[in-house]
Amino acid sequence: MKTSVMCVTQLLLAACLWAGTASAMPDGPGCENGKPAMHRHACGGVEIGAPAPPFTLEGVANLEFKNVSLSDFRGKWVVLFFYPGDFTLVCHSEIKGLGGAVAEFTQANAQVLAVSADSKFSHLAWIKSGALDTPQFPLLSDFNKRTARAYGVLDENSGRARRGLFIIDPNGVVQYQVVHSDKIGRSVEETLRVLRALQTEELCPLNWKPGEKPLGKP
∠71-74-78 over CA atoms, to 5°? Predict the structure, then answer.
């Protein structure tokens, strides 16, 4: 009898522990019903080899407001990068740097898209301030934060996107992602290197550079 009572007690305790853990877990992909209780950053996220989460966002392209969808670029490579905020120093350097390399991305059949949680009006004001010149790619507004959350780069505490960069192939599949400290700008050279490596569809060793011979088919 005592053994049975102990077993029931243990089962109840295990159930309570499981329920407590489950209630603290994120709501799942997208986290539409709430914020994660145990994690500082976003739930959701993408996997290499998986379809990129679709989106349609309004932003600024050629000084005009425009709706841009990921599906608009099917058949092209997409370099999608998230940044924390307009009118900030590191973000300014990244957008100007990527803008200066647009011809190289275009030559590689790739479209650059920049996304932050700022409004489209903030994007336009930043451009018109003269700080950026005129970006050669759209600055998109993820004002409701759904896209940053879907890609797993939203800081739920600050409401800003982390420095996440994704390379999506012409079939809409994620082939590369990197997310790191907001204090550090990304490398245009490294992004182009990875893009070119992916386009070979072959094995590329450490420090491989465009123009070098890959190792062969995987």
Answer: 90
Q: What is the mean pLDDT of residues 82-104?
A: 92
Length of the chain: 218
For Cα atoms 182, 187, 189, give the angle at the middle one, nearest 5 degrees.
Answer: 170
Residue-level pLDDT at 20: 36
- Comparison of pLDDT for 68 and 8, the residue scoring more: 68
For 213, the token pair is: 């011979």
Distance CA 86, CA 47 (A): 28
pTM: 0.79
Residues 6+ apart with CB under 8 A from 176: 48, 165, 166, 167, 194, 195, 198
User: Regarding predicted confidence, which is higher, 27 or 43?
Assistant: 43
Return the closest-CA partner of residue 84 out of 149, 162, 155. Answer: 162
User: Encoding tokens for residue 147?
Assistant: 């896209």
| Contact between 189 and 105 (Cβ < 8 Å) | no
Q: Which residues, at least 6 apart from 199, have a Cβ–Cβ distance to it below 8 Å?
A: 77, 108
The CA-based angle 197-198-199, given to 5 degrees, is 90
Active-site residues, by number, are: 91
Give the list of residues 6+ apart from residue 73 with CB closer than 8 angstroms, or none: 111
Q: For 39-87, how does the pLDDT look when each residue is reduced to its tens digit (9 = 90+)?
A: 333 446 789 999 999 999 999 998 999 999 999 999 999 999 999 999 9
What's the Cα-to-Cα distance from 167 to each of 44, 72, 80, 158, rounded to whole Å?
A: 17, 15, 6, 25
